[in-house]
Amino acid sequence: MPLTWRILLALVLGLGAGLIAAKLDPQLLSVITSIAEPVGGIWVDALRMTIIPLVFGLVVNGIASASDAASAGTVARKALVLFTILLLLAGLLSAVGIPALLALWPVSADTTATFASAAPAAVPQTIPPASEWVRQIIPANPIASAAEGAMLPLVIFAVVFGFGATRITGEARTRICGLFDAIVQVMLIIVHWVLLVAPIGVFALALLVTARAGASVVGGLAHYVVIVSLLCIGTIILMYGIIAWFSRVPVRSFAKAAWPAQAIAFSTQSSLASLPAMVEGSREQLRVPTHVSDLVLPLAVSLFRITSPAANLGVALYLAHMNGIEPSIFQIAAGVVVAAVVSLASVGLPSQVSFFSVVAPVCIVVGAPLEPLALLLAVETIPDIFRTVGNVTADVAATALVGAPADEEPPSEARL
């Protein structure tokens, strides 16, 4: 049985066991929860210990990969700039969209209790003055920032370090990039080991949450799935809007070009499996030159996930809201930047690994707890469908924006 299904099965069994445990004698319930709590906590801590070295290594390697791609020519550089702009725009969509969605569909008290019971009591952070917050962006001591879990300064240092590594040549660059690639590979092996026992950790956490919050945990998870899925759908709609306003490509032609790849993405949850359909649609429907589509689309599949900043910042803001934490405007802005940078660096990781590696840093930045991520991983399958469809849509859109011929008349059909 695939790991994703084993985790989901563990979630269902844990929810059922928690409902049964909630009806037991209070003393027996206390014994059960006293066992489940450290089991779930140890599993989350095992994942947490990989975050700092994994994220740092991913960002450095991502910068090196982007630099190598940019050196391929004008088309690659134009694509990378466009990717960066769209990733930041997706993060801003989440920063605006989550408060709007929660205002339209308020979270019930039971749902709040569900997520609050999955994490230690959260203490709202003191918001520093703007001048102090800006000064904290540049880490005077990167090692101390890593030890304290100060994610934004650490990511900034990783970006600067990565660009610095691209400026050295020869064997020195090969050694430094090889070192961080090896660190990433080791961290991925450790994460794989931790995920092998994910069903145990998820079962313990689900039991613990349900025993404390009751059946409302099901409604809480459903609410979360819908909210994050809507963010991904909003990203898809955003891509159609960008094509309509900033491209000479008619929206109808874009929809025809993207539809086959979207169908494959929906059924396989794989951008790579959708690549042949994206290439064909870009060439046949959008008339993108072959040399552009053959470069931009593989580059997009390798480096670009438009839904990652939107969904991952959305998860962090959702958890912050559930725990009574109100991130400052500076924290949200930092969350947008970190979500964009980390998502650009982590493309290609397995979905179970990437969920923690890209969501946890954003949670740290906005002050949201990490403990509920274990439960959210178990229901990530549904949002991941919409993530993949959104990524494929953005890949085709980026290719159209980079390579749509500007010296030809667009097809005669209407733009809308």
What name does the CATH topology carry?
A: Proton glutamate symport protein
**In CATH, what is the class?**
Mainly Alpha
Strand percentage lies at under 5%
State the end-to-end distance. Answer: 45 Å
Mean pLDDT, all residues: 81
The number of helical elements comes to 19
Question: Could you say which overall geometry the principal axes of the C-alpha atoms support?
Answer: globular
**Assembly type of the shown chains?**
single chain
Helix-strand topology string: HHHHHHHHHHHHHHHHHHH
Question: Which CATH architecture would you pick?
Answer: Orthogonal Bundle
Explain what the structure shows.
With 416 residues, the chain is mainly alpha-helical. It has a single domain, classed as Orthogonal Bundle (Proton glutamate symport protein). 79% of the residues lie in helices and 0% in strands. Helix 4 crosses helix 11 (216-246), helix 4 (74-104) packs across helix 14 (290-303) and helix 11 (216-246) runs parallel beside helix 19 (381-403). The protein starts with a helix and ends in a 13-residue tail after the last helix.
List keywords for this structure.
416 residues; mainly alpha; Proton glutamate symport protein
SSE blueprint:
Elements: H1 3-22, H2 26-48, H3 51-70, H4 74-104, H5 109-116, H6 130-137, H7 142-148, H8 151-167, H9 170-196, H10 198-213, H11 216-246, H12 251-268, H13 275-284, H14 290-303, H15 307-322, H16 329-346, H17 351-366, H18 373-378, H19 381-403
Helix pairs in contact: 1-10, 2-10, 3-8, 3-9, 3-16, 3-17, 4-11, 4-14, 4-15, 4-16, 4-19, 5-10, 5-11, 8-16, 11-15, 11-19, 12-13, 12-19, 13-14, 13-19, 14-19, 15-16, 15-17, 16-17
